[in-house]
From TrEMBL:
Keyword tags: ATP-binding, Nucleotide-binding
One Pfam family in the UniProt entry: HSP70
Family of this protein: Belongs to the heat shock protein 70 family.
InterPro entries for the chain: ATPase_NBD, Heat_shock_70_CS, HSP70_C_sf, HSP70_peptide-bd_sf, Hsp_70_fam
UniProt keyword Nucleotide-binding present: yes
Residues of the signal peptide: none
Domain of life (superkingdom): Eukaryota
Protein name: Heat shock protein 70
Molecular function per GO: ATP binding
Organism listed in the record: Flemingia macrophylla
Matches recorded under SUPFAM superfamilies: Actin-like ATPase domain, Heat shock protein 70kD (HSP70), C-terminal subdomain, Heat shock protein 70kD (HSP70), peptide-binding domain
PANTHER family associated with the record: HEAT SHOCK PROTEIN 70KDA
Length: 621
């Protein structure tokens, strides 16, 4: 496999709700899951803005209830999608933050940052999370990290994959490879079972996360990982389960208290947090309390939920999962009895009912739980990253064969039928040639429209881009042109057309897709990301200076209370000290004025030199 770029690459699982980063540790000969500054192996995919600063990860999630409009999560649901997309419209209703239509129908997230309204696209939010994961890795490795393998759901289409690469670029990360999450999980699992994997094994990966659901059928033989089929649902996961619980309790409150909290974002957010915690508890307990202090007005909310009730209100969702499981097996043309291992991935795969339905479906087969469902994806990404990093030996040698999640084709005929060039679930990288024929006599140019999707009528599918092959030689209708579709290892498509008789050629990598950020836009966003970083740094520096100043005032005041020192100082000096303390205290108390950092730093420096003098006296004493 080709080694791309220099230096060590990390593996990032950029999840809808939680992200995870891992690295191959050469001296240990294994993958290390890297914990964040709070000691957790996963970090909430959450970014928040307020009047003073930007927050990413845990601090962002922790303040969500008090700042719901400016706390952005689920950006992955928006990435590579259009504003008018049904899924975006549906999601928008449930989010406490605002999403509006930007240029070219691009969804833009509206936040208030430092008193100003800002519009950010999903790539920018994702770039902030990727940047955070990079920072976590850099702190652990104690060296800069430039390259990363980033995972995406298997069903992510061309523009969603590209948007993810763009998000990396904005964060200053070189995304050396995009791999699908279940493939990554299978790598992790395959490594675990390596010694027992001599025969070909069919592995079924069931990944039920926070916002997405992915299933895949892979075969593993020796070092080869081959994805046979994938299926998924971009709108099914733990958050939908949380929503069902919220809906249930909103109705209960309506009934019992005659209060409707459905238009109170703060209350809903707090209730959702309590529901998520209750849900986690119900994975090991059969009943749990749900309590929120002062949920509406002064009313404390206190209720309970049994596992049975929990299962009842989510049964439809769980059954939907099982339908997807069935579809995947049908696509792979594999009987469920031929599946050797069923692997659980994603936090929501811990739900007992989900496990029970899955086990029943696979004729009571034991499910594999030996890999940590939260870390498996990042684990696999780190192995792939090591394979692409220079100078790393001893990485397990494996070859990954991914598949296309959607059919790709052109619209060629008059009736605008989608003519599929590469069917769904074809192994990539792949190159296919389709003959396109002219529709009219002496046609001088041909317009090639490239679509992805499963619908028969081309216009019902997603138009990825188009190009024109002009200057065709004069010929009766039916004149052949070769249209070549090539998909690289990242799942990214390029299409070319050639008039065989003359060698005239034209091609596109699908970058004129309206969803994609232009190089200029990425450049601008990279610069803005630097600004954010600087501002974050400045904010921390200011906060630290203020706290140092506070500490200094405290020490000074205490020293002045010391009788010996007080007696040693002349009254002029004492006055100067008191006045310096008062000025500093006033400066800290001024809430309405935003002073520059230097103002605090100068004040601190002055006070510190005075403090040193006093401390010297203290030592003499
Ligand atoms: P994603 O990859 O979509 O970001 P994860 O795989 O990290 O998601 O899973 C996160 C989801 O798993 C959240 O909705 C969380 O509430 C849920 N979850 C985590 N632990 C449990 C548990 N013990 N029981 C039920 N759900 C859980
Ligand atoms: Mg996940």
């Amino acid at each position: 496999m080709e080694k791309e770029d220099q230096g060590l690459a990390i593996g990032i699982d950029l999840g809808t709700t939680y992200s995870c980063v891992a690295v191959w540790q050469e001296h240990l000969n294994r993958v290390e899951i890297i914990h964040n500054d709070q000691g957790d192996n996963t970090t909430p995919s959450c970014v928040a803005f307020n009047d003073h600063q930007r927050l990413i990860g845990i601090p962002a999630k922790n303040q969500a209830a008090t700042n719901p409009q400016n706390t952005v999560f689920d950006a992955k649901r928006l990435i590579g999608r259009k504003y008018s997309d049904d899924i975006v419209q549906k999601d928008r209703m449930l989010w406490p933050f605002k999403v509006v239509a930007g240029d070219n129908d691009k969804p833009m997230i509206v936040v208030n940052y430092k008193g100003e309204e800002k519009q950010l696209c999903a790539e920018e939010i994702s770039s902030m999370i990727l940047g955070k994961m990079r920072d976590i890795a850099e702190a652990f490795l104690e060296k800069p990290v430039k390259n990363a393998v980033v995972t995406v759901p298997a069903y992510f289409n061309d523009s969603q994959r590209k948007a993810t690469i763009d998000a990396g670029a904005i964060a200053g990360l070189n995304v050396v490879r995009i791999i699908s999450e279940p493939t990554a999980a299978a790598i992790a699992y395959g490594l675990d079972k390596r010694s027992s994997c001599v025969e070909e094994r069919n592995i079924f990966v069931f990944d039920l996360g926070g916002g997405t659901f992915d299933v895949s059928l892979l075969t593993i033989k020796d070092k080869n990982y081959h994805v046979k089929a994938t299926a998924g649902n971009s709108h099914l996961g733990g958050e939908d389960i949380d929503n069902n619980m919220v809906k249930y309790f909103v109705e209960e409150i309506k009934r019992k208290n005659r209060v409707d909290i459905s238009d109170n974002p703060r209350a809903l957010r707090r209730l959702r947090t309590a529901c998520e915690a209750a849900k986690r508890t119900l994975s090991f307990a059969t009943t749990t309390n749900v309590e929120v202090e002062a949920l509406f007005g002064d009313n404390n909310f206190c209720s309970s939920m049994s596992r049975a009730r929990f299962e009842e209100i989510n049964l439809e969702l769980f059954e939907e999962c099982m339908k997807t499981v069935e579809r995947c097996l049908t696509d792979a043309k594999i009987e469920k009895s031929s599946v050797h291992d069923v692997v659980l991935v994603g936090g929501s795969s811990r739900i007992p009912k989900v496990q029970q339905l899955l086990k029943d479906f696979f004729n009571r087969k034991d499910l594999c739980k030996s890999i940590n469902p939260d870390e498996a994806v990042a684990y696999g990404a780190a192995v792939q990253a090591a394979l692409l990093s220079e100078g790393i030996k001893n990485v397990p040698d494996l070859v990954i064969w991914d598949v296309t999640p959607l059919s790709l084709g052109i619209s060629a005929t008059l009736d605008k039928v989608m003519s599929v060039v590469i069917p769904r679930n074809t192994t990539i990288p792949v190159k296919r040639i389709e003959v396109y024929v002219t529709l009219e006599d002496n046609q001088s140019s041909a317009e090639i429209c490239v679509y992805e999707g499963e619908r028969k009528r081309a216009s019902d599918n997603n138009l990825l881009g188009f190009f024109i092959l002009a200057g065709l030689s004069r010929a009766p209708r039916g004149h052949p042109l070769d249209v070549t579709f090539a998909i690289d290892e990242n799942g990214i498509l390029s299409v070319s057309a050639e008039e065989k008789t003359t060698g005239k050629k034209n091609m596109i990598t699908i970058t004129n897709n309206k969803d994609r950020l232009s190089t200029g836009e990425i450049e601008r966003m990279i610069q803005e990301a630097e600004v954010y970083k600087d501002e974050d740094k400045k904010f921390l520096r200011k906060a630290k200076t203020k706290s140092d100043l506070d500490e200094c005032i405290y020490k000074m005041s205490n020293f002045l209370k010391n009788e010996y020192i007080s007696a040693t100082l002349c009254s002029e000096e004492k006055k100067a000290f008191r006045s310096a303390i008062n000025t500093a205290t006033d400066l800290l108390d001024e809430e309405n004025v935003e002073h520059e950092i230097v103002v605090f730093e100068d004040c601190l420096a002055g006070l510190q030199s005075m403090l040193e003098r006093v401390m010297d006296m203290g030592q003499i004493a």
